[in-house]
Amino acid sequence: MLYAALPRINYLDPSLYGKRGDSITLRCYASGYPAPRVAWTHQDTKRTITNSSVTSFKITGKESGGKYCCHVSNDFGNETNCTSLEVIVLPRVKNLTFHLSGKQGESITLRCNASGDPAPRITWIHKDTNRTIANSSVTSFNITGKASGGKYCCHVSNGFGEETNCTSVKVTEYQPINAKLTSDMKFATANKTFEVFCNADASPPANYSIKQGNITMGGSHKDEKLATLIEGIINKGYRQRRTEYLKSDCL
């Protein structure tokens, strides 16, 4: 003698996720007697998508996501269980600030919008120093010198993908840096002429002068270098005097 058995869902695919264009397969296996009928419905649209245990389809967009329910039934009962499909959207950088320029002391604002689902995290990185400067779509800072320039990259990610786009900041005017004072000679004899050079990185080109104490010995800004001729009799104290020159101010 055969006995009737209520339908029961024995296996249902757990929650799934995918992106547009991916193929998705849903499975629902059931037991019961007589053998239960199986139907899949998309609850968000109240639409029956198949009358079989297994169904496959391609994700066409966000509308493909939502709750999918498996209904099993026979003449003695029914059961329903549901799973879900999350449609992800890979992160993309949008509306990145174009290349900027500014002077020392001015303020710069960088903007980077992004799309994606889940909503992407946004990070700004100064590539020249590999330093994270902000964890937001918009960041502002003051130009403190030439080092504030360089490449700035917007990195977006949401756990399913990532993208990076970069822009740049050019510092057009900044105070002199890396000033150096050098001489073309290590040793000299009496009545010998030698040169002292002063150079620095600056924009616009710096004006230069060399001072020993309160005495200015020369000045120029041609070719961003200064050549000061120091003439006279080099006495026994030359080495000490030369050291003093090279410790003089380079302005």
Automatic annotation (TrEMBL):
Keyword annotations from UniProtKB, A to Z: Disulfide bond, Glycoprotein, Immunoglobulin domain, Membrane
Glycoprotein found in the keyword field: yes
Coiled coil: none
Membrane topology: Single-pass type I membrane protein
Keyword Magnesium: no
InterPro entries: Cell_adhesion_signaling, Ig-like_dom, Ig-like_dom_sf, Ig-like_fold, Ig_sub, Ig_sub2
Domain spans labelled Ig-like: 7-86, 91-172
GO cellular component term of the entry, any: membrane
SUPFAM superfamilies: Immunoglobulin (SSF48726)
Intracellular or extracellular location(s): Membrane
Pfam families attached to this UniProt entry: Ig_3
Signal peptide (residue range): none
The protein's name in its UniProt record: Neural cell adhesion molecule 1-like
Organism from which the protein derives: Actinia tenebrosa
